[in-house]
């Protein structure tokens, strides 16, 4: 173990990258060198299932908020430590279940994405489940992707899945996705049909595009406004994407 501890940080980071986040975190108990390596590791992959189950956060559970706050504190401290050391946050992968709504953790995720966007993130993956149920498009069931994402100039891979809404405000800002090579969108709700092409057209180096079960909000719907209606994306116009290798829509 002493021989391993003496290896260059880049090699130790490569070893950590091959482990699950849970197993990689256990290496801090091995030695001071491994502890320092963990706290400088630029890849953060978090699954809420490693912190609590759906039964822990149901109303009335004594652990409901304490277990969520353990997750919030863990991710925030990891990202702040990297930022304060002047280190890049290369990968941020979040898989969160039944966690996001205006009264729970949305503002925490906004903060994490902003820190990652400002600190050289190359891979950003956000997978939400439990955020929207069936085709219930009420306001409380979607996570609004923050505008700070467009500041991630070094972003090479963007993956958004499950109950994420991209607001019309994105149309008013110039995208900075010139480094994005892989774009994956699944169960994403666009509040205006132009957003989709606006987003993709700024990924001039894109090689891989996947878009499944995405929808556009129907502003002309006469349905009850408390239950927003939408229609599936039926067509897509792509132009000038000379690097595009494969597409799954």
What would you say this structure looks like, in words?
It is a single chain. The chain is an alpha/beta fold and 249 residues long. It has one domain. The protein has helices at residues 2-5, 9-17, 21-25, 32-39, 64-84, 106-118, 194-201; strands spanning 43-47, 91-97, 123-129, 143-144, 157-166, 182-190, 208-212, 215-217, 230-232, 246-248. Strands 1, 2, 3, 4, 5, 6, 7, 8, 9 and 10 form a ten-stranded mixed β-sheet that branches. α5 runs parallel beside α6. The longest helix is centred in the N-terminal third of the chain and has 21 residues, at 64-84.
Write the layout of secondary structure elements.
Layout: H1 2-5, H2 9-17, H3 21-25, H4 32-39, E1 43-47, H5 64-84, E2 91-97, H6 106-118, E3 123-129, E4 143-144, E5 157-166, E6 182-190, H7 194-201, E7 208-212, E8 215-217, E9 230-232, E10 246-248
Parallel strand pairs: 1-2, 2-3, 3-5, 4-5, 5-6, 6-7, 6-8, 7-10
Antiparallel strand pairs: 8-9
Helix pairs in contact: 5-6
